[in-house]
């Protein structure tokens, strides 16, 4: 009996040691996080005038780098297209993918990726010139449609037109910027992608009023960061970094007050104490130090701050929280508890 217990404990220890190997060790040894992003979607991921990457999805990369390396700028951003993103992740060229990527069965199961959560609930929409004179996607019979290849958008488009017994001519493109150029030049009648991306692109047009996003939303697009299957510890780190941003908003912890909230160690708010590392051993369980989540939140703010600063109603993107509001406000944004 004693021998079995000893061998069992040894096996558990070896298993735990193996779990902490892999991507976490690679990132620490390299001294930077390799994070896959899109080739450029305003408000979500694009370099500014100085070449510094900014945006809603970029903020997740920065939070993970801050949690793991203590430096939110220790990142190599790797732009990926709809076709190259999964190859780059599977090949180990990037440590995580944080771009407008939809969580689907086949990507999770067949491609062997692990979606660690949803940071934006979206749906596919259609944008057309107002001069086209249509008010519904069902009026687009025979239209030419700019569509990014290698995406769920491509499949949803085919399903929608087939279900409504109408036809279209696809104009395949590789990147969002290419789609915008073709759409604005009149090479296609319609541009279809996630509704958030349509709003973001339209806001940056010289004459946004010349274009309209049609009312139909034809799919569910839960977007979120993903990692490779098989490295559970790394998946936990990315997952709980996103959850830390979400929980911080729920608990009223912001980038401005986080230092005082952490210093207070208020017994009346034990979950804040666990989140910020003044109580418990959550960081140790991840193979990180006690202040990993504090640094992640300080990198760009809580979920609500990141939303408001990059794509919210006071930005030129102008997106309302909608279903991406906190669950306590009737939305879908929700984190498991920190305990």
Characteristic terms for this protein:
339 residues; alpha/beta; 5-stranded mixed beta sheet; 3-stranded parallel beta sheet; 14 strands
Could you characterize what this model shows?
- The protein has about 350 residues and is of the alpha/beta class.
- About 40% of the residues lie in helices and about 15% in strands.
- It has 14 helices and 14 strands.
- The strands form 5 sheets. Strands 10-9-11-8-12 form a 5-stranded mixed beta sheet, sandwiched between helices. The chain has a 3-stranded parallel beta sheet with strand order 4-1-5.
- Helix 6 (about 150-165) links the parallel strand 9 and strand 10.
- The chain is globular and about 60 Å long.
- Mean pLDDT is about 90; it is low at about 1-20.
Q: Share of helix among residues?
A: 40-55%
Would you tell me the overall average pLDDT? Answer: 91
- Outline the biggest β-sheet: 5 strands, mixed
Shape by Cα distribution: globular
Structural class: alpha/beta
Strand composition percent:
15-25%
- Our Rg estimate from Cα atoms comes to 22 Å
Low-pLDDT regions: 1-20
Secondary-structure element order, N to C: HHEEEHEHEHEEEEHEHEHEEEHHHHHH
Topology:
Layout: H1 2-19, H2 23-30, E1 33-38, E2 46-47, E3 53-54, H3 56-69, E4 75-80, H4 85-90, E5 96-97, H5 105-109, E6 113-115, E7 120-122, E8 124-129, E9 143-148, H6 152-163, E10 168-173, H7 176-185, E11 190-194, H8 195-203, E12 211-213, E13 221-223, E14 226-228, H9 232-251, H10 258-264, H11 270-276, H12 282-286, H13 292-300, H14 303-310
Parallel strand pairs: 1-4, 1-5, 9-10, 9-11
Antiparallel strand pairs: 2-3, 6-14, 7-13, 8-11, 8-12
């Amino acid at each position: 009996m004693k021998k079995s217990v000893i061998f069992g404990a040894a096996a558990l220890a070896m298993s735990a040691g193996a779990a902490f190997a892999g991507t976490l060790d690679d990132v620490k040894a390299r001294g930077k996080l390799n994070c896959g992003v899109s080739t450029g979607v305003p408000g979500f991921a694009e370099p500014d005038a100085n070449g510094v990457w900014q945006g809603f999805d970029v903020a997740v990369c920065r939070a993970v780098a801050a949690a793991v390396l203590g430096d939110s700028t220790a990142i190599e951003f790797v732009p990926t297209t709809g076709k190259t993103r999964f190859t780059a992740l599977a090949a180990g060229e990037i440590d995580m993918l944080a771009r407008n990527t939809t969580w689907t069965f086949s990507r999770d199961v067949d491609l062997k990726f692990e979606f660690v959560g949803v940071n934006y609930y979206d749906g596919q929409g259609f944008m057309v010139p107002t001069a086209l004179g249509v008010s519904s996607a069902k009026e687009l019979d025979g239209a030419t449609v700019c569509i990014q290849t290698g995406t769920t958008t491509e499949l949803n488009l085919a399903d929608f037109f087939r279900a409504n017994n109408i036809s279209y001519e696809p104009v395949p493109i590789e990147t969002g910027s290419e789609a915008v150029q073709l759409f604005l030049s009149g090479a296609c009648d319609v541009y279809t992608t996630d509704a958030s991306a349509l709003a973001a692109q339209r806001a940056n047009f010289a004459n946004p009023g010349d274009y309209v996003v049609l009312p139909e939303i034809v799919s569910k697009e839960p977007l979120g960061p993903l990692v490779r299957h098989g490295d559970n510890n790394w998946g936990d780190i990315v997952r709980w970094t996103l959850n830390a941003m979400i929980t911080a908003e729920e608990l009223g912890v912001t980038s401005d007050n986080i230092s005082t909230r952490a210093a207070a160690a208020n017994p009346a708010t034990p979950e804040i104490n666990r989140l910020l590392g003044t109580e418990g051993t959550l960081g140790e369980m991840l193979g990180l130090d006690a202040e990993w989540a504090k640094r992640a939140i300080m990198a760009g703010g809580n979920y609500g701050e990141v939303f408001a600063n990059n794509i919210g109603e006071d930005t030129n993107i102008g997106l309302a929280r909608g279903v991406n509001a906190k669950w306590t406000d009737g939305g879908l944004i929700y984190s498991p508890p920190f305990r």
